[in-house]
User: What shape does this take?
Amino acid sequence: MVRSVCIRSVAFGIALLIVAQPFLEVRKRAFGQEVSKDAKADLKERDRLWDQTQKLRAAGKLSEAIAAAEAMLAIERKVLPAGHADLAVSLDWLAMIYSDREDFAAAKVARQQALEVLRKRYGDSHWKVTDARLALQDVERQAGMTPDQRQKLAEAERLNREVFARYQAGRYGEALSSARRALALRHELLGRRHPLYAQSSRPCSST
Assistant: This one.
């Protein structure tokens, strides 16, 4: 019984920590009291594009997803004040799609812009700025990887999603197995000092 509880806690901890993207936060709606009717309409279209680009990315339609993400970002730059946090979220998302397409030069530009938005908004010592800086480093690291290494990193991401789905279904042993495989891949590719590896739960003792 003790062992069963331990497996569940480790699987849950690993699922929560690995599945989460540290640099992609939940979008905060920008509907303030001073936003005009036209701006609200623009932001409603922005939200539609946000949903659309997620579906397109999930379907592997990366060029269309990038076009929708860029249109979403153009609306935010038109409507929102300079330095609004939503701009960083959209730039993060755009960078991820560029990385999916292995256009790392474009992904790096988007990451740099997101970092600059967050640095001006929060200052250099804020955790969001640290996460954005790490995300930029990850793009630079991926750009230097071989195709085989990038494929392994993509497999780790797939396993992350699998961990969460299996945990939600109550298949804790399978979730733990997938989590351990994802950790092994990230250890090989990123090293022990990388946050995505370091955030893993400590293993259970054998007692």
